[in-house]
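Help needed: design a sequence for this.
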């Protein structure tokens, strides 16, 4: 396991916990804050790697669970690893598959040494141990990897939560022990502990004792009230000063910007591509649904000042036509815009941190975005 990642805090915002950091990986230096598009099955849905390069995406997320089931991690190893297999020469983070096991399986059973589950593809039975999850990710040869953990949902009973957290901690230690000494891969710890400050802090402290170069915050943005999400993030993230902080599964502009203000460095989510496949695009004035009649003769781009490929070349009227005609190109053009939107938003956050104006940037962006969303929901957009 690569433990010395040369983590460095380059800038701190003067009025929040926002920061710019960088650290080394096997495929280059990662500068944060950063949003990672999700390439679940070794592809960001609807996009080629060349299109992602054009947006200047530096790191993607792929999923251990899905790649293990199809095509199989041994095949990817034979291909030369995930980078070669998908023709991506920048950084890759793979998650452990824990979330998918609990969200996609109609059968999962936690044992002391791992978790038994059924494949969502064919119903076949499988068993993940901490050691097997590390072995799979070794075969994938990704740059940043995750340990097996127990994901918990909002409303989990305290005794179940405590047991799940203890299992996550035990597995984290086993995953670290399973890492090869000369590995270039970076293993993060995953902070569980439920929806209380105390539970999260206890889990974090024990993970710090085990020793990891970076930390993920798991099982947030899973249906809990916004104030609880914010409270946990605001309490935990600033306590991690010696490594990167990764908030798992967050892609909403509000939550990304708030997370940055609390000291979170890395985010990922399927949201930008998922909503693009369902006719919805981000704008600074909130989300818009392009199949609305009002866009039938709107020959302007999705956003006037957007520099993405989609906005440079196509109008809302054309995109509406593609969506109405069920053309595959609609998903591609929509995904390019949405990923570019989040990339540009995070780049703006970096600039504001450098200038010491992050709070002003965040509040202005959120106010404009959420006001537009309110109008849309009231059928005025």
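Sure. Designed sequence:
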């Amino acid at each position: 396991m690569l433990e010395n990642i040369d983590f460095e805090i380059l800038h701190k915002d003067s009025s929040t916990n926002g920061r710019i950091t960088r650290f080394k990986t096997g495929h280059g230096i990662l500068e944060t804050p950063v949003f990672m598009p999700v390439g679940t099955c070794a592809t960001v849905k609807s996009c080629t790697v060349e299109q992602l390069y054009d947006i200047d995406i530096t790191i993607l997320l792929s999923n251990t669970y899905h790649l293990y089931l199809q095509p199989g991690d041994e095949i990817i190893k034979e291909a030369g690893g995930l980078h070669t297999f998908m023709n991506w020469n920048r950084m890759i983070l793979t998650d452990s598959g824990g979330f998918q096991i609990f969200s996609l399986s109609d059968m999962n059973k936690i044992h002391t040494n791992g978790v038994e589950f059924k494949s969502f593809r064919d119903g076949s039975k499988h068993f993940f141990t901490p050691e097997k999850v590390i072995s799979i990710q070794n075969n994938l040869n990704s740059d940043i990897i995750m340990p097996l953990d127990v994901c918990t949902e909002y409303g989990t009973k305290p005794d179940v939560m405590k047991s799940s957290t203890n299992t996550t901690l035990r597995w984290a230690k086993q995953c670290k022990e399973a890492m090869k000494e000369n590995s270039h891969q970076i293993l993060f710890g995953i902070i569980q502990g439920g929806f209380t400050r105390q539970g999260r802090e206890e889990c974090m402290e024990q993970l710090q004792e085990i020793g990891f170069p970076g930390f993920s915050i798991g099982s947030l943005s899973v249906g809990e009230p916004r104030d609880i999400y914010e409270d946990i993030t605001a309490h935990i993230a600033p306590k991690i000063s010696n490594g990167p902080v990764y908030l798992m599964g967050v892609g909403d502009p509000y939550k990304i910007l708030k997370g940055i203000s609390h000291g979170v460095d890395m985010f990922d989510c399927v949201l930008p591509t998922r909503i693009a496949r369902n006719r919805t695009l981000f704008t600074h004035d909130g989300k818009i649904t392009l199949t609305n009649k009002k866009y039938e003769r709107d020959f302007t781009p999705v956003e006037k000042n957007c520099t993405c490929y989609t906005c440079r070349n196509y109008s809302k009227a054309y995109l509406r036509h593609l969506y109405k005609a069920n053309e595959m190109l609609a998903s591609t053009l929509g995904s390019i815009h949405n990923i570019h939107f989040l990339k540009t938003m995070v780049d703006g956050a970096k600039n504001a941190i450098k200038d010491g104006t992050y709070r002003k940037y965040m509040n202005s962006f959120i106010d404009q975005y959420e006001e537009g969303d309110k109008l849309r929901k009231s059928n005025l957009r």
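The chain has 15 helices and 17 strands.
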